[in-house]
Amino acid sequence: MLKVGLTGSIAVGKSFVCDVFRELGCYVLDADQTARDVVKKGTPGIAQIVSEFGKEILTAEGELDRPKMASIVFADEKMRLLLNSIVHPLVFESQNAWLAAREAEDPKAIAIVDAALMIESGGYRRFEKLIVVWCEPEIQFERLIKRDGLGEADARKRIESQMPQDEKKRFADFLIDTSGDFESTREQCRYVHSKLLEFNR
């Protein structure tokens, strides 16, 4: 089985790219969903977060209050690193279990794991190929404001808290530029998929 990492900064269109790879027959795991699952109510992950950040980061129902958590970690680098140190090992463990299950059921599969912080966490080293999704900075900025309803200052803060896109690109085996329309992005995905099939023969 070919194990492929897929990454890119916030609001660059990773979800659309992942949907295209699913349509093309790849297995795709969304790391954002995995990160939500490992800190659900009742998990060891949420217990660890509460012990470090206090009960005020929970909703009345006992779930993680994501907007409150985001306001804390995007304003304080130390808090962001602390949160990542709790969540990343749990996400890795969950991803590894998913990869093992896919390989057992379909040894000739292409399995793609999508994770925003794959390079920063060092997780990209577990994969045979790395796809980096990117777009022009002004497009990323506009998409983030529109998607999350943020003000300009908050949007800039979130973008600047991540590794610059140009730096991420240096790690890539394949680049997908989502600055254009959906069809242009889809065409690039088809090309990358054809190359992955060659590697996986």
Describe the structure.
With 201 residues, the chain is of the alpha/beta class. The protein has a single domain, classed as P-loop containing nucleotide triphosphate hydrolases (Rossmann fold, 3-Layer(aba) Sandwich), CATH 3.40.50.300. The chain contains nine helices and five strands. It has a five-stranded parallel β-sheet with strand order 2-3-1-4-5, sandwiched between helices.
Q: What features would you highlight for this structure?
A:
Rossmann fold, 5-stranded parallel sheet, alpha/beta, 9 helices, 5 strands, 201 residues
Itemize the secondary structure elements and their pairings.
Layout: E1 2-8, H1 14-23, E2 27-30, H2 31-37, H3 44-53, H4 66-73, H5 77-105, E3 110-114, E4 129-134, H6 137-148, H7 152-160, H8 165-169, E5 174-177, H9 182-199
Helix pairs in contact: 1-9, 3-5
Q: Brief description of this entry?
A:
This protein has 201 residues and is an alpha/beta fold. The chain has helices at 14-23, 31-37, 44-53, 66-73, 77-105, 137-148, 152-160, 165-169, 182-199; strands spanning 2-8, 27-30, 110-114, 129-134, 174-177.
| Structural domain tally | 1
Globally, the shape reads globular
CATH level-3 fold name: Rossmann fold
Q: Enumerate how many helices there are, as a single number.
A: 9
DSSP helix fraction = 40-55%
